[in-house]
Design goal:
This protein is α/β, with parallel strands linked by helices. The chain has one domain: Aldolase class I (TIM Barrel), CATH 3.20.20. The chain contains 4 helices and 4 strands. The longest helix has 18 residues. GO terms for molecular function: N-acetylneuraminate lyase activity. It comes from Helicoverpa armigera (Cotton bollworm). Its EC number is 4.1.3.3.
Length: 122
């Protein structure tokens, strides 16, 4: 499962418009699953609001490409990580097994290991 990069415009704003073509290219190349915000590093440099928009963009294209989406929600501020987990839980779009949470307090965020994010007690 490859980590996907966050596409940027020349002015360093996020290029959401290219994500559908990027996802189609990956799916057409035989990729079945992608890691949004993973090891490429730039995701944790973005604001939580921008991270949510990137996640939404990938979830939207997953519906048309069949890609399985995993999301890295870790970060330095624990409050940001908590907010992203709650965001995904409210949308009921990602299972906790599809979350990658890095950081010192990550074990505190997932109280039920095989539950959906709506069941996460924060």
């Amino acid at each position: 499962m490859p980590p996907v990069f966050t596409p940027l415009n020349d002015d360093l704003t996020i290029n959401y418009g290219i994500i559908p073509a990027y996802a189609k290219f990956l799916a057409d190349s035989g990729i079945k699953s992608v890691l949004v915000g993973g090891t490429t590093g730039e995701h944790m440099s973005l604001s939580v609001a921008d991270r949510k928009k990137v996640i939404d963009a990938w979830v939207a294209v997953a519906k048309t490409t069949g890609l399985h989406i995993q999301v890295q929600v870790g970060g330095a501020p624990l409050a940001d990580v908590t907010e992203l987990v709650r965001f995904l839980g409210k949308k009921k779009i990602i299972d906790t097994k599809d979350l990658i949470i890095s950081g010192v307090f990550s074990h505190l965020l997932l109280q039920k290991h095989n539950s959906t994010t709506e069941d996460v007690e924060l």
